[in-house]
Amino acid sequence: MRIVTLNRGNDNAANFTVVNTGSNDWNYQIKDLAFAVKDQFSGLELSINENAEPDKRSYQVNFSLFNKLAPDYIPQIDLTRAVQNISEGLIAFGFKDPNFRQSNLMRLNTLRSHITNNKLNNNLNWQV
User: Could you tell me the pTM of the whole model?
Assistant: First the structure.
């Protein structure tokens, strides 16, 4: 999924709008992503806690605005190929940081930093 910006008129509050791009047919559960990564890398073990409480949050991405703006768009890369592309990119980049989970490459770390620095509130709204 990539983010696309579109120019908007001067009567809007922002100069652009952000749109989720993709297909409503290609929404995956977290475990689907985990299995796709496991399949890409040999030697990985995957553990799923079958006794965990179900996550009641919805991670389903809605692509309907993009579909309205670009009705003829058909995604070209499925989940398996996307994971392969990321893997190939990391290898080509020489990524070997064993501490990446503590870095700003992790979304949760970036969010925590923004909250600590009063850029975001606890509801993840930008502070003005």
Answer: 0.61
Q: What is the dihedral sign for C-alpha 48, 96, 105, 1?
A: negative
SS3 for 4?
A: strand
Between CA 25 and CA 38 the distance in angstroms is 22
Cβ contact 4:21 at 8 Å: yes
C-alpha to C-alpha distances, 92 to 1, 17, 20, 79, nearest whole angstrom: 21, 33, 27, 20
Mean pLDDT of 56-64: 80
pLDDT at 1: 46
Nearest to 74 by CA among 29, 30, 36, 24: 24
pLDDT at 104 > cutoff 70: yes
Cβ–Cβ contacts within 10 Å for residue 17, how many? 13
Contacts for 76-85: CB closer than 8 Å, 24+ residues apart: 78/26, 79/26, 79/28, 79/32, 79/33, 79/36, 80/36, 80/39, 80/40, 83/33, 83/36, 83/37, 83/39, 83/40, 84/40
Contacts of 93 (CB under 8 A, 6+ apart): none
